[in-house]
Design brief:
Number of helices: 12
Strand content: under 5%
CATH architecture: Orthogonal Bundle
Oligomer: single chain
Structural class: mainly alpha
Strand order of the largest sheet: 1-2
Helix content: 40-55%
Low-confidence stretches: 205-210
Largest sheet: 2 strands, parallel
CATH topology: Endonuclease III, domain 1
Radius of gyration: 17 Å
Shape: globular
CATH superfamily: Hypothetical protein, domain 2
Length: 210
């Protein structure tokens, strides 16, 4: 199957020989999320990525899944100092104390947003006019690193106590979770993801719940 899909035209960042990056691009990136746990997963991974490459984090994704309770924010929010110290010894994680501590504190703030807005998805959509956005970029160089919306979200999250979630990281989150479709128009996934995005926009309940 891998050989059959290698010839397809992809976004430039996924067009190399790295099979895991291709798989992530082909199956995950830009697909509208189905619930808040997926949002929380990407928040943890993207905050861990700060200053590093996405490839580095992607190869540790399953380790993070095990270490952070299958990305359950309710469980992560209860991690003790002893548990954090244990995580700092885990070679399968990026052992940065501030990043690991922020993942736990961010989980607590994440739960507060769920209480206030019903879901984290609802919260994000409030900054996007209530629906995901489909862009029409022709090349990778056209993609912005951040947008006014991602900057506004980042500022608000910072006020709420979130850490390691600057405007560039937040824009990456919007791309990854399908709130923005940034596949280039020549990519074989562009139309597929656009169709999923439109369906999700018509049924916004897809973005609610965990």
């Amino acid at each position: 199957m891998e050989r059959q899909t290698n010839h397809k035209k992809r976004c430039e960042w996924a067009a190399g020989k790295d099979s895991l990056m291709r798989l992530y691009h082909d199956r995950d990136w830009g697909v509208p999320v189905l619930g808040d746990r997926r949002h929380f997963e990407f928040l943890i991974l993207e905050s861990a990525q700060a200053g590093l490459s996405w490839r580095t984090v992607l190869y540790k994704r399953e380790n993070y899944r095990k270490a952070f309770a299958q990305f359950d924010p309710n469980k992560v929010a209860k991690f003790s100092k002893a548990r954090i110290l244990q995580l700092l010894k885990d070679p399968g994680l990026i052992r940065n104390r501030l990043k690991i501590e922020s993942a736990v504190s961010n989980a607590r703030q994440f739960l507060e947003i769920q209480k206030e807005f019903g879901s984290f998805s609802n919260y994000l959509l409030g900054f996007l006019g209530g629906r995901p956005k489909v862009n029409r970029w022709k090349s990778l160089k056209e993609l912005p690193a951040m947008t006014p919306e991602s900057a506004a979200i980042s500022v608000d999250l910072k006020k709420r106590g979130f850490k390691f979630l600057g405007p560039v990281v937040i824009y990456s989150h919007l791309q990854a979770t399908g709130l923005v479709n940034d596949h280039v128009t020549g990519c074989f996934r562009y139309r597929e993801v656009s169709r999923l995005t439109k369906v999700s926009a018509l049924h916004q309940k897809v973005f609610c719940g965990a």
